[in-house]
Write a structure and sequence with these properties.
With 821 residues, the chain is an alpha+beta fold. The strands form 2 sheets. A 6-stranded mixed beta barrel has the order 2-3-9-6-8-7. The two termini are 29 Å apart.
Length: 821
Amino acid sequence: MNGWGLAWRWLKRDLTAGELTVMAIALVVAIAAMSSVGFFTDRVGRALQSEADQLLAADLVLNADQPIAADFLAEADRRGLMRGATATFPSMAQTADNAQLVTVKAVSTSYPLRGDIRLLQNGSEIKVSGGPAPGTIWADQRLFSSLGLKPGDTLKLGDKAFTLGPILAREPDGAMDLYNFIPRAMFNDADLPATGLIQPGSRVRYRMLLAGERDQVTAMREWLKPRLQRGQRLEDVREARPEINTSLNRAERFLRLSALISVFMAAAAIALAARRYVERHLDAVALLRTMGLTQSHIIGLFLRQYSLMAVLSISTGIALGWLTQFGLAHLLAGMFETTLPPAGPLPALSGAAVGLVLLFGFCLPPLLRLKGVSPLRVLRRDATPAGNAPLAFGLGLAALAGLIYWQAGDTTLAGLALAGLAGTVALATLAAWCLVWITPKLPLPGQLGWRFGLANVARRRGLSVAQIVSLSLGLMALMLLTVVRNDLLSAWDKSVPVDAPNRFAINIQPEQRAGILAEFKRAGLPEPVFGPMIRARLHSIAGKPVVADKYPDERARRLAEREFNLSWGGSLRNDNRLVAGVPLSDNTPAWSLEEGLAQRLGIKLGDELAFTIDGQVFKAPVTSLRRVDWDSFRVNFFVVGNRALLESQPASFVSSFYLPDAQRTFSTQLSRQFPNITVIDVSVILREVRGVLDRVLSAVEVVFAFSLAAGVVVLYAATLATHDERKREAAILRTLGASGKTVRQAASAELLLVGGLAGLLAAAAALGIGAGASQQLFELPARISWWLLPFGLISGALAARLAAAPLLARVLKTPPLRALR
């Protein structure tokens, strides 16, 4: 007997029976969802690697928040390396009639060392090997459009007037800038002093660019590493653009979790279908045993059949995923400016692994039950091997948990998904057994059909529990992707008050405050509140020097390494609430910390904190912790000292204010009168952030289509699991004289009860997981939409009943004699 030939014939036959079709479709959906996301993220990763020099404009970059030290420059020259420099900061670009916030980059004449600059002239791009000449400024198309400019116009930055050159089409280290919200401009760094834009408190990033032979660059890197100071770091392609890494990782997590939901539901469908498949083949296996086939031969035959189905499903799923990733790349194309290269083969292998784990993780344990089939079953139907449902379900869940941890790519996300999965399964199992136990004790309705249907829930205990658990997982996943996701987005929108400040003014000098107040009064606007701001670095906590690498949490390391903006004051606004300690006094040196910062850095009340300001160390105890409402969009600080501690230190000032649309020109007038200050239009940034979010969500909707398909498969599998039993019961009822209406009532009663409970449990689980996601992942207030509970009850009942309608119609059309035979 040819085992593979027989397996192929069985496969073709069983695909028409339904169970293998359900398993195959579930596998295709799960593999397509995971591989499409894998193909897309692989393309992004390859783009980052293949264009590393374009993203850096050099072989090695030293990034600092202070001008590069002279000994570093001298060492690079001594080693014969090519050297360039940039200084990047926000500022206001002005014309005679208008002004616009821009990201300004002052570049050396040698910039860029790698890659090229592209300018737009006469409708076509040209490549140039160096930056603009002194007195000339290049700007991108957005600045030309927003200010109505043309080449040759005059553009003013601070105290310096520039002649506008051609349109800046591309700068090497400006590619793939996900948060490139505002226009960009570039000028020669020889003009930087004349602008007067660099003031105390200005946020400038200085970059030393180096290029040369690989050995030279490596040696320079090793020389620099032990000499790096606070605020200095060496950059590679991902470090150079942390916003690329962060935002793409977030988008990838969204997509991966959406794909994992498809895997959830595919697992539920496969588990249900595998159980019915094994049940239907008990007689065939008994017959094969009477013909002399051993248990190992029979199991091998079924494994061959599963292997053939795996090859077909994996091939189809990977092909569908490969086509889908083009849609993802198109929807997210606006997030970066470079062309994505083709994907590699690893995502296909990953998709194949997902398919194999799902298939054999949920199909192999039930299949082992066939080893216990006795040849006596040919004569005695009661010679049925004992079921192994707990083992099968446990092994399947273990496989699914491993997939979640592997594919989530983030410990927090994996933990939340695993906790949600385990909690949903535990809750659904407990509730299902309670239903099975209590149903016989309930008063039954008078009509025969309804009474018989409710009794079936208790009569098929194990199957009822499996149906409820599987349906709960599938419906929970669908509710998470629809209702709860919309609640999270709504919470994000409502977290920003309608009258929140939409402008920030920074780099305000002390002597300019009176003039700015006068301008606000003249315009009829409320007087702004100025917050003093002093740049400082955290030196020690409780007498121990701060070492960023000692913190296991990445955010804590960044906080310990960052340059802080300190402020001083005593009274608390309504967006700052004291949660521990006592308010600051004017006379006793003390610090007040934002509670989240204190928790991450392990700072407690009474600890002595030391900050370095211009080389001088300032020490004081922590006397209070504050809870800050960052969504108020008012000026707030992580660390605030009292007047006695900081008032004598040089500081710039920052302010926020609300500017109505009717007075939009006021910020332009303010920037023209005070050229050194920068007015940031937060509303523009919020719109751009929303645009990025919308693009990500559009991509999630593509993956959601797979989840929806998987949900349909789960519902069909749940009804298919009881199809044989329901067909025999219908035949018996009709033989005894029951009408078609009675049979429909019996099936409806069972399905409505099972589906309603599953929907209710799914809604409860979705609310719990959504609340956890909002607080742990998105740091938003949890919103509990209690209406989802009755909605889940009703929608679950209707979904189960409607999904069974085609199979129920087939049951009623089957003659009772044929069903009983």
